[in-house]
Amino acid sequence: MHKGVKNKPAKLNNTGSAIVTVIVVVTFISILATTILYMSGMNFFMKMTDLRTKESFYDGEMALEEIKAALMAEASMACEEAYTKVVINYAATDGATRYSLFQNEFLSTLETNWQAKTHNAANPDAPFSYETVLQQLVDEKYRSGISLEASILNAGSLEVHRDEGYALIRGVTLQYTDANGYTTVISTDYLIMTPKLNWGVDGSRTEWASGEGAAQLVRSDIDMSECVQYYNWVKK
């Protein structure tokens, strides 16, 4: 009698499955690594672009700061002249009158001096434009980028507001492209305010003197940087 033969389970053919698994895993890791490298590269590119843009902006902004510094000097000279004229008649006026006289003298002197900058000594019949005047206040590398807004009437001239005690230079625009090809465009007005002096305290009379003393007081005791400010500043 034949003994029954037990059926053995057939083995599955796994030939090549291991290498397929390895290929799938390697492919997945490669895709993940590529994605990470791509994102890192994009992040680096974006940061470099932002850095270059900021460098271009700060470099270009120097031109506007140079104009501001020049206007501070103009305000300082106008302040000195106005102060001296008011001090001469100090005893004959009261505080309110002194303040009014000083404000009017300051704005009038500022307006006259700014207008005088358009004078062309070589050809008096062809005065310089205010655009040219502003360009001469900045470093040569910025000059071609300084312009005035065509849509603003009398842009670049000194617009005086006597009742409010300030003056405006409107529509100054800077377009600057650096060595890396990044361009910055900024437009702004310049606000010039009458310096604040206490003309109503009679006890302070001995602290003020005409001539050289007045000039020295103006330079040392008045912060002219607060008199000139950006107004309607826009980065385009």
Runs with pLDDT <50, length 5+? 202-220
Radius of gyration, taken over Cα atoms and rounded to an integer in Å: 36 Å
Q: Report the average pLDDT across residues.
A: 82
Tell me the series of helices and strands, N- to C-terminal.
Answer: HHHHEEEEHE
Global morphology: elongated
Q: Which class best fits the helix and strand makeup?
A: alpha+beta
Helical percentage? 40-55%
Beta-strand proportion: 15-25%
Multimeric state = single chain
Please summarize the sheet with the most strands: 5 strands, antiparallel
First-last Cα distance = 103 Å
What is the tally of beta strands?
A: 5
State the helix count.
5
Name a few traits of the molecule.
single chain; five-stranded antiparallel β-sheet; 236 residues
Could you give a short description of this structure?
This protein has helices spanning 17-88, 95-116, 130-135, 140-143, 212-221; strands spanning 146-148, 158-161, 166-177, 183-193, 228-235.
Describe this structure in words.
- With 236 residues, the protein is an alpha+beta fold.
- Helices cover 48% and strands 16% of the residues.
- It contains five helices and five strands.
- Strand 2 (158-161) and strand 3 form a beta hairpin.
- The longest helix is centred in the first third of the chain and has 72 residues, at 17-88.
- It is elongated and about 110 Å long.
- It starts with 16 loop residues before the first helix and ends with a strand.
